[in-house]
Every structure is written in structure tokens, then in C-alpha cells.
Amino acid sequence: MELKEIVKKIYKIIEDKKGDDIKVIDISKISSIADYFIIAGANNINQVQAISDEIDFILGKEGILPKAIEGNKNATWMLLDYNDIVVHIFLKEDRVFYDLERIWRDGTEVEI
Fold first, then answer.
1. Domains in the chain, please, with CATH?
2. Transmembrane stretches, by residue range (predicted)?
């Protein structure tokens, strides 16, 4: 599966799980850590976990496994690292606090 197809699939999973304010940022020209960041908000800790679990489950069925998953059952921020794609699922308050969109503002926002 091509990278952009995986990005679209992750976006759709987040959307289906009612994630908020989903942003896809192409950071390939400004960083070597990944090509894309996908950032989304959630209303509560259970939703943060549900979104990250669903991404891991659906991509896993297609043989796409994360290099790492950071966060736990009580996490307000889950990070799923798929090498070229890094997914950040935040509790809304934490998203505002960490403001990754500002930090990575030199990247290019991608419309899905």
C-alpha cells in the first residue's frame, strides 16, 4: 500500500471514531523523522485509546505494524509510529498545550 493511501486510511479511521480537528502535515521537506504527522483530538481518555487501538487493529490486519506505540490506557496523548507516518491522538487540552501544529508550521498541511 502506498504511503498516501495509508495516510488516507488512518484519516478515515480517526474520522469514523469521531476524532476532532484532524490535521495531516507533510514534514518530509523539513525533517528526516517522518514524511507525515497526523494529529487529531479526542474528547476523553477512552476515545484517545479507542482511536489508537482501531488504527493499530485495522492497519495490523493489512500487515502494517507500528515501530512503536507510546502511551497507555490512561494516556492523554497516544503516539503511533509507522516510520514514515507518525500519528498523534491527543486529549483536546493536551493538544492545545503541546501545539504540534505550531512547532511543525513549516510543514505543509495536506487536504484529505
1. 3-110 (3.30.460.10)
2. none
